Amino acid sequence: MKRNLNYETMSGTQKKSALTLVLVGFQGSGKSATGNTILKRRSFQCGMGTIATTVSITRDEIHHGAIKITIVDTPPLSSKETLTAINRDLTKHEQTTAVYVIVIAIGRFTQDEKNVVEEILSNRSMQGRTLFIFTRKDELEDLNCREEDRLGVWLDSTPTIRKWMRQYKINNYFAIENTSNKYDAILEMIDVAVNMNNQTKRNCFGKKIFREGVPLAVVIPVTIVVFVGILVLVVQNAICSSM
């Protein structure tokens, strides 16, 4: 089925953001460039890997069919405190349900970076709504295997990422090349993110209903028991009085 990114102006009802994609990554990972690839335009500033060009949280929007998507570009990860600042900003903008996109450059992943990712993945806010994007897909061309198998082979050679996928149940990941005009992986990623976000909203709604329903589930049976108990006492008193 053909999918398109629609940039047309939407109605006021539709303009309420249905999805927030939060791009998280290290300096030089291609995070901001990935945001521009998703947007199909240069919105986020990006440069050489040795110079951090994103110094504050910025956002832009696209429309995917009838869905408004907010893309959030963030400063390079340095510690788990970076994620705390990001979540604080999302709360301020009432974007409390979001899908986190961890951007990692293929062939470039230091031990310090692994330690930081380990810290942020353990954060409850990211559980159940995180996916990976691996940039520099062209780096996989040197692998001696079929094209469709290359990403899997590279992941097998990077056991730390495989471990995170199992431990934190991250089943969605994509490889892209930001200099390419091929958008299949981006469109697939957006579809997956929309589904993840919808599931998150259903879970949050279900928890709210559960929390609000618990008092009723407790109060009603207790009320019945108390009423029956009072009724029994009244009947017993009536019997005793008549004797």
From TrEMBL:
Coiled coil feature spans: none
One Pfam family per UniProt: AIG1
Residue span(s) of domain AIG1-type G: 19-211
InterPro entries according to UniProt: G_AIG1 (IPR006703), GIMA/IAN/Toc (IPR045058), P-loop_NTPase (IPR027417)
SUPFAM superfamilies, per database record: P-loop containing nucleoside triphosphate hydrolases (SSF52540)
Keywords: GTP-binding, Membrane, Nucleotide-binding, Transmembrane, Transmembrane helix
GO MF annotation list: GTP binding
TM region positions: 214-235
PANTHER family: GTP-BINDING PROTEIN A, GTPASE, IMAP FAMILY MEMBER-RELATED
Family from the record: Belongs to the TRAFAC class TrmE-Era-EngA-EngB-Septin-like GTPase superfamily. AIG1/Toc34/Toc159-like paraseptin GTPase family. IAN subfamily.
Name the UniProt record assigns to this protein: AIG1-type G domain-containing protein
